[in-house]
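ok so dumb question maybe but i'm new to this and my supervisor (M.) told me to 'just get the structure for Cytochrome P450 76A1' and walked off. so i did the thing. is this what she meant?? sequence i used:
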Amino acid sequence: DLLDPDSRRGSDFFYHTGKVMEFAGKPNVADFFPFLRFFDPQGIRRETQFHVERAFEIAGEFIRERTEVRERESSDEKTKDYL
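this is what came out, is it supposed to look like this??
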């Protein structure tokens, strides 16, 4: 579960999303000198992409698990499930 303090995946998810926010707030030299954008001299784009992909993988795992559980239980009762 995402909010379980003992969950390894939950803590990994929050770690990676935190890193994305950290890199989003970091000044990037390539923003001021567009010709450097391709070179990514600080590695911000590369690092951000890694953490975004990992966070999406973890979120996808949670979504797949939740949909599998709902399909197995498949009751007629309507529930509000916001993942």
